[in-house]
Design goal:
The complex is a heterodimer. Chain A is mainly alpha-helical. Chain A has helices spanning 15-18, 25-52, 58-68, 71-98, 116-145. Helix content of chain A is 68%, strand content 0%. Chain B is an alpha+beta fold. The chains are: A mainly alpha, B alpha+beta. Chains A and B meet through α1, α2 and α4 of A and α7, α10 and α11 of B.
């Protein structure tokens, strides 16, 4: 697609979120943060509909609860839990960096350059490990301990 | 000889994106076989192609030493300077070269940088002082300490190659986003002790398409060939804004004029400057 100057568009669009190059961990953490954020937003909208079924009385509420305890919705509920854990923990990291923590101080750039992204990376890795542990523990609770 | 040089292939394939407006309906990839002696940069390879195989191949370049920022391209999966990357260091016998993503293509590897420079201009990339008279008719130099210099010098190394915007995922979906280059340059001036223009730049940098659109993907800092670290500058700018909103920032007062140097004795170890020839 060309513009009025006859230049060809080279905009990455959504592909720019998902890939588009051989970048570091933070760029993929960014994508996952946005996707989990959108997922949680979708969940909150559905949640309003679900809790709204209480307006129809106890029968309506029990009927909707019976639907949401089936296998597919159980997996969906677990995905909401996964998104919440990731989004929450990564959000703490982003909040700290936005407040100027974890990244050191400005310095003269000397080659080989070491950016603030590398200085905060250990925190990202710790947060990812913590997220995996919590998700595994949550999975155990969702599918093994409370499956009966 | 380093291991990477010892393993350098004798010949490499340059796979280059071609697009000639009016001729090509859509971009196509064209392959060229290029001899790769030790030390060959990607730019050297492109010049060899132009001189020996295909004079129609187009790109921008100038200084050949990583200073002018003209030759940024998308090389083997990352935005890089063609002049500052040796073929041997890419560890591949196929070099895939495309124009920088997120910019319109004028022809072949030539991106349209006009929107990029318009964003740079929008943040007023110059010292702003309340006393215009002193700027127009300077009577001295504005004072800055060594510590104050370190606050911004890293961000002043930007060569405007445009690599950061092509790596940024927010730029990929938001045309109006100022982008890491312009925002980092805004911070370069706000962090300068001589500047008094933070309030004038605020409307632009804290708009819906300003600093708070950055969610710290960090790709801009990763690909910056000069160590500018735009992502860091943007986070520092957000911190500045939070502090300001909470009343933790003093009003910006540009530094005073430095007193004239008196009784200066040249150091013996430094050679004397040559006399004026004109």
């Amino acid at each position: 697609m060309t513009d009025e100057k006859n230049h060809l568009s080279n905009k990455l669009g959504i592909w720019g979120w998902l890939g588009g190059g051989r970048y570091g961990l933070e760029r993929y953490a960014y994508t996952l943060h946005r996707l989990t954020g959108l997922g949680l937003l979708l969940y909150f909208i559905l949640h309003i509909f679900v809790t709204g079924s209480r307006l129809g009385g106890p029968e309506s509420w029990s009927a909707s609860m019976a639907v949401y305890e089936t296998g597919l919705f159980k997996i969906g509920e677990f995905l909401v839990f996964v998104a919440f854990i990731y989004h929450g923990l990564n959000g703490i990291r982003l909040g700290l960096t936005e407040l100027g923590f974890l990244m050191g101080k400005p310095e003269r750039p000397l080659f080989p350059y070491r950016s603030s992204v590398m200085r905060q990376r250990p925190v990202l890795i710790v947060i990812m490990v913590l997220a995996v542990i919590l998700i595994l523990a949550g999975g155990l609770d969702f599918f093994v301990l409370t499956s009966h | 000889m380093s291991e990477s040089h010892a393993n350098a292939p004798q010949k490499v394939i340059f796979e280059v994106l071609r697009y000639i407006p009016g001729v090509d309906a859509k971009p196509r990839m064209q392959s060229y076989e290029v001899p790769a002696p030790k030390g060959l940069t990607v730019l050297d390879g492109l010049l060899w192609i132009k001189e020996n195989l295909d004079p129609t191949l187009s790109w921008r370049s100038s200084c050949r030493m990583g200073v002018c920022g003209s030759c940024a391209m998308f090389i083997n999966g990352l935005p890089r300077l063609a002049c500052a990357n040796q073929v041997a260091h890419l560890h591949s016998d196929k070099i895939i070269i495309k124009p920088l993503p997120n910019y319109a293509i004028i022809r072949d590897l030539v991106p349209d940088l006009e929107p990029f420079f318009a964003k740079h201009a929008a943040i007023k990339p110059f010292l702003i002082r309340k006393n215009i008279e002193e700027l127009d008719n300077p009577t001295g130099e504005f004072f800055q300490s060594k510590e104050e210099l370190v606050n911004y010098i890293q961000f002043a190394y930007c060569i405007k190659c445009g690599a950061c915007l092509s790596a940024c995922p927010t730029v990929a979906t938001d045309d109006a986003y100022l982008g890491p280059q312009a925002l980092a340059q805004a911070w370069r001036y706000i962090a300068d002790a001589r500047d008094e223009g933070a309030a004038e730049r605020e409307e632009e940098i804290f708009s819906a398409h300003g600093a708070f659109r950055c969610h710290f993907a960090g790709a801009c800092s990763e690909v910056c060939p000069k160590g500018v670290d735009p992502a860091f500058a943007i986070q520092l700018m957000k911190q500045f804004m939070f502090k300001k909103k909470l009343g933790g920032c003093k009003e910006q007062h540009g530094s005073e004029l430095a007193p004239p140097v008196e009784n200066w004795v040249p150091k013996k170890e430094y050679p004397k400057a040559p006399e004026h020839s004109l």
